[in-house]
Write the structure tokens for this entry.
Amino acid sequence: MKLSAIIVEDEAKSREIIRDYLAKYCTDVELLGEGATIKEGLEQIKKHKPDLVFLDVEMPFGNAFDLLDQVPNRTFETVFVTAYDHYAMDALNNHAAYYLMKPINIDELVKAVDYVRDIKKKESSLAGKVLQSKLKKAEGKITLPQQDGFQVLDVSDIYFCKADDNYTEIYLEHKKILVSKTLKYFEEALSEFPFARIHKSYLVNVNEVEKYKRGKGGSVVLSNGKELSVSASRKSELLSYFN
């Protein structure tokens, strides 16, 4: 699958390196344009509507997040390219499909492109398709620790789980239960069932997903009407449930 891309990077040398690496090692990526500022980057995005944007974090008069905030309904994936690793968590949890550190490692660049291609293939294959679910029914029970013992819950009754520091909110049809366990605990406890970690804050029962929406980072709408954000770095895992 061929991908279209643009580079938004204020350093000419860095743009040259990315351009050369793409030409040599990612020949199925078509580079459509480049920008050195947020304004130029926005103009290139509007003009070309790329599949992929290689985006520097620190730029004159703003940063990558400022640019992305001006494209709320985006359909492209973002690969951050930066020398500053302290942006990594925010980038991966909210905006970026991949995070590349300078100097750019060729193998990591190829992985980033492959990851974005995988997302685009899955989104394309699901568009307008009658889905034959691969999901097994979430049959089973889980115990939730309480101060005076524990509560037994049917796994299929869980719509999603939400992180709340060292606690987790378990959302059922008409109520929620606060449990003194981390979301990571429930991710592991429910690993044999069709539950997907779609964000640092959310673990969802995939059987309850009724709609997937592309956009800022993507989101899912559950059968109870609740809409939850999907991290760009979690998209591929989620879409795998439906391919």
